[in-house]
Amino acid sequence: MKSKRAALNGSGNNSAEHSGIHFQGQNSFNIATVVQNPIISPFALENPESYSCTLDPASQNATTTNQESWPFNIIQCDKNANVLPASNSSTPNDVLDSTPTVGDSEACPSYTENQNIPTVINTTKPAPSVIMHSSRVSSVIMHGNAVTGGTATNGIGWNHSRTIVSPEREETYQGNNVEATQSKSTSEDEQTDKYRAGETYPERREVTQPATSYKKNKSVIREGNKTETYIAKPALPGTLVNSGIAPLCQITVKIGSEALVKRQISGSSLFFRRNGKPRHSESKLEKARQVSDEDKKERSSNRLRKSECIQMEEMCDDASDQDVSDKPWRPYYNYKPKKKSKHFKKFRKLKKKKKHSRSRDLEDDFIDVENIDEVNVVDTKSSTGHAEDQEDGQEKPLETEDFKDHEKTDKVEMITAQWQMDSKPFFCELCQKSFRNSSTLKLHMRCHTGEKPYPCKTCGKCFSFPGNLNKHERIHQTVKHFKCQYCSKSFMLHETLKKHERIHTREKTYDCQFCSQQFLYLCTKKNHEQKHLAEQSVKGFVCFHCSKVCKTAAALGMHQKKHYLKGLKNKDHKDFSPSTAEIGSWSNVASSSSKESNMIEERSSLNVPESFPPSFDDCEAPLLSFNNSVTEVSPQNVNAASLVENVNEIGESDGHFLTPAPPPTGLNSTMLMEAPRGWKHWKTRQYNLEESMNTDHSSLKESTKTFTELKTMTSFETPFIP
DNA sequence: TTGTGCAGCGATCTATAT
DNA sequence: ATATAGATCGCTGCACAA
Ligand SMILES: [Zn+2]
Ligand SMILES: [Zn+2]
Ligand SMILES: [Zn+2]
Ligand SMILES: [Zn+2]
């Protein structure tokens, strides 16, 4: 059995393939993907047979094109079939109980090029995930709340002039996932059996209209043949199936080609957003909540039990979780956002200059907004420690001012928001990403729609982006065009060659945070670091200065206060002077610790180098913590710990004591040394924390860089190599 | 069993063309 | 302003060696 590389983002959201789901990147089309989620379609509550469903006339003229698209079902319903009872409980349980589980992948035939997928029309029990209404009076299907056509809003509550695009485009796909929201009824079983038996699928249809550009903003209700489209889309494929958080769905209401309302029924959309700036008006959130509540009432799914719903509610109860709901809509497994674009940097620079000319003190508040991509405003590591200004390559000095974090955060938010508004005015409503122009946004929407208009001429595999097709088509060439200039190896793709050549050039390697090893591949590095983390599960409160281990944080505080006082005494005013915040921080720890100054001076005899804190296995207090606040381990935490560690080393290398730096405020003044022993465990925690903090991985990268710089400066000679 | 490197792909960024 | 191509990054799966 082969070992599998640990997934890097650890979210479970990336488990599309793990769970046998192949929305993207695979030709296989796993229908179970959609079926798996009981919440996925409120429509499933409805008795589909009660509708008179006809094929959308447009779709009848549709041509079959690409085979890999989002598995929407599209049904056009008569107007009089529009009104849906809010609590129509007709056979919901049946529906759900018969819902195939994720593991039913074998029941879901792989979709291949020559196969046809049944459209919804061909099934006897259509349970659409997309419904097209001819009605002029729109209503949101589940609860009948009207979205009045005449006063159409964008449903978002924003009043700016951004372009908001809903996932479905002018081209809508004729559903091929009949089973998507349909119960795994006998008919479905029959069908899947048929498919397995090798019978051809009914032809899959696609509604293809001339690709028109997205209308900018403003939902204009066209008179005449207006079509309202309700779309319920599965959320992220494979979302946390195992964790009990079911993938959810999203409802988009389209009138004509205008996306007017999107209701995202996803994890935390089941719950109120506490603070403002909602993307949906409160009433709509309320509606969404009602929907979910009804769902919860009416569904006693085997896979999503009520308790799980409650659990979800609890999970999202915290304000910090609010935006978690946005995450599942990031295309492709919740990818880490790419690096901040140069435009953003330019923007920031401009801002800085403006500020500088206006007021000096604002300028002094250095804000590293590099990290604050999109919604990440929690990680304000810039407030302390070293922050690298990537743009100039200049390293910012240690921040010693007593900042008010929230002010900075606000500034960052402002800057980021303003930048997005100014520089990226094209907004994807589904994932809240912004883009610089409509083309980019259009392209991006393919991630949501699954549109893949670029088929490989050789194998027929379709791609969303021409560049990816080009890359792909090279694999059909047997010739490896790209030769390594250092060895004789050749590669199909230039990018692969470049990656390979890093072996020789040692360029762009990934440094282990804990030792001096470098790795060519990020995943390798992370796996390696995990090893450190696992072994470094130090339980106890470690003094970074002398490696003593204290049983409690208070004890450590007491101990380190000694260091601090000593340092003050010996300090010959180099350039270090602790901030008041810092002193306060340490004093607080110390003062609360008078009772518990039972320091443990025992040093582990494990293979821990002298400079590394000893482990303390039987210590009850698990975390190294400032201010007695505790959080779970995360890459940020680890980096923070490392950061402090190295700051200490700076001080020591200079021959004088340096008080440990305060923890980065972005970590809520918390850092710790404990890591779960298992990688998977760690991953999970990492993900959860990141999600709850509404951060992304970019902060990790930034922190790592900072740390790497420190490492270089301080010549981290004694790596911890277990 | 574990670690490492490669293949391949999705998605985004950036420069350039229209 | 928009569209496009190429570059790039991040990710997973797989093969293979230790
Ligand atoms: Zn989007
Ligand atoms: Zn091909
Ligand atoms: Zn080579
Ligand atoms: Zn290491």
TrEMBL record:
Residues 279-308, 393-407 have a biased composition (Basic and acidic residues). Residues 426-453, 454-481, 482-509, 510-537 form the C2H2-type domain. Transmembrane segments: none annotated. Residues 1-21, 167-195, 272-336, 378-407 are annotated as: Disordered. The keyword Metal-binding applies. InterPro entries: Zinc_finger, Znf_C2H2_sf, Znf_C2H2_type. Gene3D superfamilies: Classic Zinc Finger (3.30.160.60). Keywords: Metal-binding, Zinc, Zinc-finger. This is C2H2-type domain-containing protein.
